[in-house]
Amino acid sequence: MRIWDIICIFVAMTGIVYKSTGSWYTVKAENGITYECRIKGKFRIEGIKSTNPVSVGDKVDFKLEKTNDENDSERGVINTIHDRKNYIIRKSVNLSKQTHIIAANIDQVFLLVTLNNPPTFTTFIDRFLVTAEAYGIKAVLLFNKIDTYNEEELLEIKYLAALYRKIGYECVGISAKTGKNVDKVKAMMQGKVSMFSGHSGVGKSTLVNTIEPDLMLKTTAISEQHQQGQHTTTFAEMFDLSFDAKIIDTPGIKGFGVVDMEKEELGDYFPEFFQLKSKCKFNNCLHINEPKCAIKDALDVGEIAWSRYKSYLQIIEGEEEHYRKNNYTEE
Ligand SMILES: Nc1nc2c(ncn2[C@@H]2O[C@H](COP(=O)(O)OP(=O)(O)OP(=O)(O)O)[C@@H](O)[C@H]2O)c(=O)[nH]1
Ligand SMILES: [Zn+2]
Question: What are the residues whose beta carbons fall under 8 Å from the beta carbon of 268, sequence distance 6 or more?
């Protein structure tokens, strides 16, 4: 055992979880060294019934474990999880009300959008943005494949970008293929933990490949491993990029998960509705049929986009349907 290891046994170390395979966690310590860590004892995080107590992105304290085997010297035991700034979850496959935490402490998520190849509808964008707001994760819209659009399509992109910028979301037109504006994306990623999301075929892999060509090898290896391994395991993994940026890759996870919320809460996740809601006559206004609703007034004068309001109604109706269905099945 090296002197360093002996010191480490007594000193608590702090690191970030890069990968988890169920019982082992790969933790990168502040000294840049990676340790394989376990958990001892029970971890309970208030308010979360989760199948996994520690997830990728977590900041943890751990101690090195004393082992006799020279090869095993880089193992540790996690004893503390630092407070999370946010986390994304997936409902467990079984019907217990448990959730699986996919990743934690995400600084931003980039949603890749394409007009027609594949089509990305505003309802999808809006549902995504609502989820990001509810999770407390900054969302950025990347309109990809701008090298393929004709003038008319470019106008549509401009219209969409203006719509979402007005609400406060950053929007960038890019081409993952030609590299156009990818430098802007890289600049936004600097010093942060990012995720990429979007429909299949929008260009997520192409973009990551353009950002960091060497990384592809690793991500492919992981998804192959994923396909061969137990299909119930959710793999997420964090990667360090060459320019002080981190990404969390979540192969096999489609979409961004769902967040349960009350009907009354939904408007709070549409920032432009939230801003106006104090002007509605009723403080519990759902902005549907109520009189003197500031949101509907804003809609009438074109201050709020109809596409946004339509998405809002759709989500509310969906929630009601979901609610009725649950009531029904529970009887
Ligand atoms: N012309 C053009 N094609 C692109 C661009 N970005 C991606 N593509 C193409 O779109 C197709 C899908 O890209 P992928 O990177 O595999 O998409 P993905 O989002 O990773 O898809 P999944 O892995 O299914 O989720 C590929 O044929 C890419 O070459 C772009 O900016 N311009
Ligand atoms: Zn209202």
Answer: 133, 274, 277
| Architecture of the CATH domain 263-330 | Orthogonal Bundle (1.10)
- Domain covering 3-85, topology: OB fold (Dihydrolipoamide Acetyltransferase, E2P) (2.40.50)
> pLDDT tens per residue, the chain (331 residues)?
566 656 656 678 999 999 988 789 999 999 899 999 998 766 655 555 666 789 999 999 999 886 666 665 589 999 899 999 999 988 766 666 677 888 999 999 999 999 999 999 999 999 999 999 999 999 999 999 999 999 999 999 999 999 999 999 999 999 999 999 999 999 999 999 999 999 999 999 999 999 999 887 565 555 555 555 444 455 789 999 999 999 999 876 666 766 778 899 999 999 999 999 999 999 999 999 999 999 999 999 999 999 999 999 999 988 655 544 443 333 2
CA 133 – ligand 2 centroid, Å: 19
| Ligand 1 contacts CB of residue 14 (under 6 A) | no
Residue 18 CA to residue 171 CA, distance in Å, equals 29
Q: Where are the domains of the chain?
A: 3-85, 106-249, 263-330
Q: How far apart are CA 56 and CA 283, in angstroms?
A: 39
Candidates 17, 18, 11, 45; CA nearest to 239 is: 18
ipTM for this prediction:
0.99
Query: What CATH code is assigned to 106-249?
Result: 3.40.50.300
Residue 106 phi, psi (nearest 5): -95, 125
- Check pocket membership of 206 for ligand 1, CB cut-off 6 A: yes
Has 50 been labeled as part of a binding site? Answer: no
